[in-house]
């Protein structure tokens, strides 16, 4: 197993010299470094009294299954990297060749050099070898078999800090850990009715968190503020629990860097995203528990009689056949969700799980049954980034949610092993955004739009015609720009970063123009930074049956204009931030306001 994998690395022998492209030399050097790391890892497991093959030692440690899976991944990466390596060497040779040499007819190479893809392969290879070193640390300092719920596996590995420091260059700063004892679970409070709480097995719920208040003077006595926060579970493959190691935290570290409090303190705002406070781990459940600060209008809670904020999901609203928001509210909803996706991409984070059931709305505690007319659809929040699905195997109990299959591109690596995409491709996010905009425009779930399809057709002409009739051709162009992104990346019409920037321009320009009809826009008051708190205007659908609904889809919707002035209330800071020093004059996100391409919109 190890010997075969190591032999796959034989093509990396001599350095490639390219004075014209120092970045190419750097990539080759990184690949050779990973080869040396793999050989060094094998030496740790080898026994001088036995054969060079280390499979027996790995089998005795009970890690043959996991190591075999990692080795298989490494071989696949190297199998794809080798032809790219050779094509880069040929490219370097051509750069140094004379004009006469270049004029000689040569057989064209079957593999075209792709720097972006080679970077992805080197990054994936580094992560896989990191996992092997994690296994070695487990062998040298095994974890105790009984661990209390919420105790972090990363904190238990601190005893080998000197060894961990050897590989710090491949990792980002560890996210902040939260003590689970600082949480107050609503189910333990007698003053809260059980009917107002989320189901016990729900992936999200509201909990209360104790947080020390920052005082302006050291003479003031310390106090604790209790604030409501969103608790979200991020499961990972249970095989990591069985062998006692932590899965790769690379994505989580990127997400924390993008959404942490330090990001907010730099006087920037998050558009449609919640601020990530920290996490703790429940190893017995094979999951991480992420804590997010709630959005506006949720201040410190009186634990004696707390009010539970309610969570509403866009997926539930789409299934509510009796109500559909007005056209301007749809535009604003689509615009703000797109902003959230572009904000993540600007920070180097790929969501990987864009779907209607991951778009949330938060409202104060309501009396009685849920009333969708009270939901402020202009303020959506995108949650549940995909953090650990790449670590899952075919027989994993943490399999991908089947509801996401229609929202994902057919060649998404989370759906199939066959394809050139990596899970870090922004094009896959853009495709998911296109599906979400399609659902919002038709106000119907994808499973109803394509009831008999396992995947969305490459050219859903019928659905796009209905979308144009209800939302206009400009909105359709935004959907099409996002939908074509994966195919454009495959055909290599442009570099992925250039192509993604063009999609951002097109979608932003189209949705900004659409939102011009929204008189209740948050940006309508140019002289004030205050945001309006508005309830979404709702209009009843003319029919509640699916057959009647499909007929009505061919007719354009009637605009419902707001005739009464909106009720203005100042937007408050998040509950978690209110306990700390505040900041003011939050500017718009960095990607907003970039120059748009001049010319006719395509």
From TrEMBL:
Family annotation (InterPro entries): Kinase-like_dom_sf
SUPFAM superfamilies: Protein kinase-like (PK-like)
Polar residues bias: start-end ranges: 543-563
Ranges of Low complexity composition bias in the record: 149-160
Residue stretches of biased makeup (Basic and acidic residues): 570-581
Entry coiled-coil feature ranges: none
Location of region: Disordered: 138-173, 543-581
Superkingdom as given in the UniProt entry: Eukaryota
Protein's recorded name: Protein kinase domain-containing protein
